[in-house]
Design brief:
The complex is a heterodimer of chains A (317) and B (261). Chain A is mostly helical and 317 residues long. Chain A has 14 helices and two strands; from the N terminus they run αααααααααααββααα. In chain A, 68% of the residues lie in helices and 2% in strands. Chain B has 261 residues and is mostly helical. Chain B has helices spanning 4-29, 36-62, 68-74, 84-87, 103-124, 130-158, 162-177, 189-194, 201-218, 240-249; strands at residues 91-92, 100-101. The chains are: A mainly alpha (317), B mainly alpha (261).
Chain lengths: 317, 261
């Protein structure tokens, strides 16, 4: 296009920011600054692959779900997560086109550690209560971060999130229903959820990421806010999570494993013990308790099934 | 002399246990299918199938056979009435670690099984037991898509690379080895067949062969012969693979069978 060629990169950048400021949605084929595209690719491919890796810890409990109703519920939930992964990877694939990269490359990135997946999905699931807690609180946390991006400037992502958030609400209800049954159950069942909460609390704090890049050396929250992909900071989202879930957790008679936790009335903020952020850094480098096992499961199944993908492309050719 | 209710219960256990076990095997595949779209599709089928099993267990509960969850989770293998094919492992290894599952086996097992289910469901729509006939109508709608799905995989993989064909042919052999009791009613054959609950073993077998013949012919293949069963699951004869499956699927339920989960 002649017109575009006569404009400088800087002018295009300014126009682009003005479009975003005006609340316009950016579409897959629109011009966009490299920085924006790269930030989106990182964010969306990480989100997509996390949905897929996130199916693995819950999948461990699908065959073991303790009633027909629970078996049906958790099957449906994990299937949704795979569906979200698919939806998001499609969005990421469109963004990757100029780099001549595709889903296969994203899988390779995952396997060699270049593409990270969410910290919570590196953790062990030890009991059925963990399956419930993931649905209730991890999905609850996800709803909070994803709702924050429903107005994202990138249209395809915003639209995918609309659908995902609608389903996540059902997931949180599914998780809550498991937890409520345990909370109203026997002493052993109640002990099971308390233990689960003790194990997951730190991961839930980490879920939202460090408050600033000083903690871990890097954070993409600044660039995503600049481009109106999200509006709130990591800390604001964590506080939203506390506002919503601390009263609910306590109303079930559970104890949050942080004796320093208190609400500061003046500042309208929750004070809490920081998680061990050095542990977080390790986890996202695939050095968490189940990082390698889950990657290995994904990798080997991908390799064992290579013949199927070859066979399918032979049919298409 | 077997009563009508006994025959009906036996048939329901066969139907329920078949879908329950095949769905369990499907759930072990979750997250490991050849591509993400397939994971979504096949887990949806697995879920439908668990729904069908639930429907049958509920019918059994209404007939006084016991609590549906207890029937699904607690019965030892000797009391199970599923076919051997439904209980077979997906491949080597435990699903929690790094199992080696064979997609060709999954496709062939599911296709042959679903076609068998199709002819049973078609017959059950005319069942003398009205609640079962009504249930069959509902299953039938979902089954249409299941069958189409597995048939598509079956024909595609058998029309593709040499490696795919080789793996599929091996899988066909493996699946057929366990196919002997699929249409068997076991020791209750006479009672089940004489009550108008469902078509006879022979009629179902013929319908299954008739449905598969054109598909095989289009691929230049012949429908394999159904062997006599070496073990008959309908009589409670099973492999150790079923014991291991029951141990896993009831692990949490058994922690406290009186508790609400």
């Amino acid at each position: 296009m002649v017109l575009a060629a006569t404009r400088t990169e800087e002018e295009m950048q300014t126009e682009f920011l003005a479009r975003i400021e005006a609340g316009e949605k950016i579409e897959a084929d629109d011009w966009m600054p490299e920085e924006y595209r790269v930030a989106l690719i990182k964010l969306i491919s990480m989100h997509g692959i996390s949905e897929i890796m996130g199916a693995l810890p819950e999948k461990e409990w699908v065959p073991k779900a303790p009633s027909l109703r629970r078996k049906l519920g958790i099957m449906s939930k994990v299937q949704d997560e795979m569906g979200h992964g698919q939806l998001l990877l499609r969005v990421a694939e469109d963004l990757l086109k100029p780099y001549d990269r595709n889903r296969g490359d994203l899988m390779q990135d995952l396997f060699n550690g270049d593409l990270k997946f969410h910290n919570v999905f590196h953790m062990e699931t030890k009991t059925w209560a963990d399956a419930g807690l993931i649905g209730w609180l991890v999905d609850g946390a996800a709803i909070i971060t994803q709702t924050n991006m429903l107005g994202a400037s990138y249209g395809p992502y915003a639209r995918a999130l609309q659908r995902i958030c609608a389903e996540e609400v059902f997931h949180a209800q599914h998780g809550e229903s498991i937890i409520l049954a345990l909370a109203e159950g026997t002493a052993e069942q109640r002990a099971m959820i308390q233990e689960s909460l003790n194990g997951w609390w730190e991961s839930l704090l980490m879920f939202f990421g460090p408050a600033s890049s000083n903690t871990t050396g890097s954070s993409k929250q600044d660039v995503t806010i600049k481009y109106r992909i999200r509006t709130k900071t990591n800390e604001q989202l964590r506080q939203d999570f506390f506002d919503k879930y601390i009263p609910r957790i306590q109303s079930l008679g559970l104890t949050i494993p942080d004796p320093t936790l208190r609400y500061n009335d003046e500042e309208k903020l929750w004070e809490y013990a920081q998680p061990d952020w050095s542990k977080f850094k390790k986890i996202i480098k695939n050095e968490g308790p189940r990082s390698q096992a889950r990657l290995n499961l994904r990798r080997t199944s991908y390799e064992y099934n290579a013949w199927v993908r070859d066979a399918l492309s032979a049919v298409i050719d | 002399m077997t009563t009508h209710t006994e025959a009906l219960k036996e048939l329901l256990f066969q139907l329920a246990d078949d879908d329950f076990l095949i769905s369990y095997r499907g759930s072990e595949w979750l997250g490991l299918a050849p591509h993400i779209e397939e994971d979504v599709a096949s887990s949806s089928i697995t879920q439908d199938t668990m729904g069908h099993a639930t429907m049958y267990y509920n019918l059994l509960e209404e007939l006084g056979a016991g609590n549906a969850d207890a029937l699904a989770h607690l019965r030892p293998s000797a009391e199970r009435r599923n076919s051997i094919l439904a209980e077979r492992v997906n491949g080597e290894g435990y699903y929690m670690e790094t199992p080696i599952y064979d997609w060709a086996y999954a496709v062939v097992r599911n296709y042959f099984y679903t076609q068998a289910k199709r002819v049973k469901i078609d017959s059950l729509r005319e069942s003398s037991y009205a609640p079962l006939a009504e249930g069959a109508v509902k299953v039938s709608m979902e089954l249409h898509y299941h069958l189409m799905h597995w048939r598509t995989w079956f024909t595609q993989l058998l029309s593709s690379t040499d490696e795919a064909k080789e793996r599929m042919n091996k899988a066909i052999q493996l699946v057929m080895e366990d196919f002997g009791d699929i249409f068997s009613y076991g020791q209750y054959k006479e009672a089940i067949e004489s009550e108008g609950l469902i078509a006879s073993e022979d009629e179902l077998t013929k319908s299954w062969l008739a449905a598969l013949t054109p598909v095989f012919a289009s691929l230049g293949l012949e429908v394999p012969k159904i062997p006599a069963p070496t073990k008959n699951g309908r009589n409670g004869e099973h492999t150790e693979e079923l014991d291991a499956a029951i141990a896993t699927l009831s692990e949490v339920y058994r922690l406290d069978t009186e508790a609400v989960w």
